Amino acid sequence: MTLDISKIRADFPILHQQVNGKPLIYFDNAATTQRPQQVIDRENEFSLKINGNIHRATHYLANKTTEAYENSREILRNFINAAETAEVLFTHGTTESINLVAHSFGEAFINAGDEVIISEMEHHANIVPWQMMCARRGAKIVVLPFSNDGILKINLLDQLITDKTRILAVTHVSNSLGTVNPIAELINRAHLKNIPVLVDGAQGAPHYTIDVQKLDCDFYAFSGHKMYASTGIGVLYGKRKWLDQMPPFLGGGEMIDKVTFSKTTYNELPYKFEAGTPHYIGAIGFAAAIDYSTNLDSSQIHHHECNLLSHATSLLKNIEGLTIYGEAPEKAGVISFNIAGVHPFDLGTLLNQMGIAVRTGRLCADPVMDHFGVENMVRASFALYNTSEEIEAFYTALVRLKAMF
Ligand code: PLP
Q1: Which of 125, 134, 310, 349 could form a disulfide with 139 if both were Cys (CB 3.0 to 4.6 A apart)?
Q2: How confident is the model at residue 320, as a pLDDT?
Q3: In this structure, what DSSP letter does residue 208 have?
Q4: What pLDDT score does 1 carry?
């Protein structure tokens, strides 16, 4: 049975509208994806009938919400095949997940003179938290570069790892180049030298099956809103052996065992890292989004997204003066490009007038812009509800706009 895209599209109400008098073509999925009715309904059900702050009361509403929140954690655990729910922390998203690790792992394990390896293709969310931590602890960032076609030079890793290295933090899939990094191999190489690995899975978890036990990663961070759930909810997977040794990130309610003015003891995992009221309705919606996508055939979705990417790539290559950034053999549905003589912001604005939503700018990846010596790029990114017809309309629009300049 093939994937019925029109049936899938029917689940996403936002797609069925006109923008500037044209049918919306939404190609900004790497920034955020849209939500199916099933996720909206699940969240609304809790907002309308079942809302109660979790873990803190004995009443009906709080009990129902607590139960749904903890069930959602189990659904997320199962999704990434973590060994236990205690290793699945709800956060506000990938950014908070990485800040949590940079802060708490840094406090526990990083000292003056130590080194943290990140790659040249990281999103700012996997650069800045490490820089902040390094500044506090007197440590240093070391960068694993990529080649001009957007492939990490992983053979350099063995040289970059020294006796000062404390952690490797690397993206699963680049949000600007689309490159799918060989994270299993990176983890393996780092582990051979006893270096733990954090994987930024913001663009990986939406498109690939994640088995954290098989990968043996130490941390894996991802966001709900990039995989058909709401904003403000994400997950940090962490191995218990690290989480147990790391101090809390934020202090407040829920993360404590006992508070006195002289001393506070902390709650068990995962609550030690979930201070304050979490976005529990978002977590419940996140689980509904996971149910939604796992009910579809993942190999067919993958096949569909690969087809969209190769169709778009071969069409865009026909446009004279168009440069695609990132041509790794294994890419997710992301194409970043520029057209010579056309400012990316003009392109984005004019495409918007034709109802086409793309991203323009620095893509939260300044080092990638610097690598290619450009100020900005245009990025089209695809999700399971996009179609070949939309790709063709996008191509036609680009050809028309190119002719205008
Ligand atoms: N890492 C990557 C690779 C991303 O693409 C993004 C968002 O675009 C992030 C991290 C940050 O995710 P969030 O804004 O959901 O925290």
Answers
A1: 134
A2: 96
A3: S
A4: 59
Site to probe by mutation for ligand 1, drawn from 98, 203, 207, 219 as the one with most ligand atoms within 8 Å of Cβ, is 203
For 235, how many CA atoms within 13 A lie in the half-sphere containing its CB?
Answer: 36
Tokens 């973590």 correspond to 82
Does ligand 1 lie within 6 Å of residue 204's CB atom? no
> If you measure from the C-alpha of residue 73 to the centroid of ligand 1, how many angstroms do you get, rounded to a whole number?
21
Tell me, in angstroms, the distance from the centre of ligand 1 to residue 201's CA.
8
Task: Report yes or no on whether pTM surpasses 0.90.
Answer: yes
Do 149 and 133 form a contact (C-beta atoms < 8 A)? no
Residue with tokens 């065992």: 257
- Report d(CA 106, CA 73) in Å as an integer: 26
DSSP per-residue letters across 137-199 = HT-EEEEE-B-TTS-B-GGGHHHH--TTEEEEEEESB-TTT-BB--HHHHHHHHHHTT--EEE
Residue 338 phi, psi (nearest 5) = -135, 155
Does 171 contact ligand 1 (Cβ within 6 A)?
A: yes
Q: Does 172 contact ligand 1 (Cβ within 6 A)?
A: no
Is residue 233 lining ligand 1, measured as CB closer than 6 Å? no
Count the Cβ atoms, other than its own, within 10 Å of residue 56: 12
Ligand 1 mean position, distance from CA 402 (Å): 31
List of domains in the chain? 5-30+298-404 (3.90.1150.10), 41-294 (3.40.640.10)
Q: Is 95 in the pocket of ligand 1 (CB under 6 A)?
A: yes
Length of the chain: 405
Residues near 48 by beta carbon (within 8 Å), at least 6 away in sequence: none
Opening angle at CA 306, ends 234 and 315, nearest 5: 120
Q: Is the minimum distance from the CB of 123 to ligand 1 under 6 angstroms?
A: yes
Mutate to test the pocket of ligand 1, among 29, 33, 98, 175 (most ligand atoms within 8 A of CB): 175
- Amino acid letter for position 21: G
Distance, in Å, from the CA atom of 168 to the CA atom of 119, rounded to the nearest integer, reads 9
Q: Which residues are catalytic?
A: 364
Low-confidence ranges of the chain (pLDDT < 70): 1
With contact defined as beta carbons under 8 Å apart, do 189 and 159 qualify? no
